Amino acid sequence: MTNSTTLLRTLITYGLVLPLAIFLGYHSGPLSTIIPFGIWGVIGLVWLWVAGGRALLANHRYGDPSLRAVNCFLLSLFLARIVLYLIVYGGFYGDMLHFAGILALSIALNGGVQKPAPVAAPASTPATIKFKRPVRTLATGVTG
Length: 144
Hints:
By secondary structure, the protein is an all-alpha fold. The chain has five helices and no strands.
């Protein structure tokens, strides 16, 4: 018997195969989310991507102009990691560190999620109302 066969039989004997299979991952981002967590895990991950993308985009648009290049980099890195996770290679446990780290760095640098600057309302001038003068006809004297 080879060492790998002996190791596998030992793991099966002590009931350690399932935790080992979950820990090792599946080398596919979608599978590493669906198999252990099901549809609720997929919904949660997609929610994290949408909320995180919106936060990074807001920090990029409305953040400090001196951090514009950093915010652009963090947004593009986040989107690239999503594409790599879905198409090339991904593991839930390893990539969650990347997603959370990118979001945490952006929020820490910008002091939270930035919002657009409030626009001051222009000083309003009192509205003037122009009334029509009533038209009188000569023949009847009726106003109209």
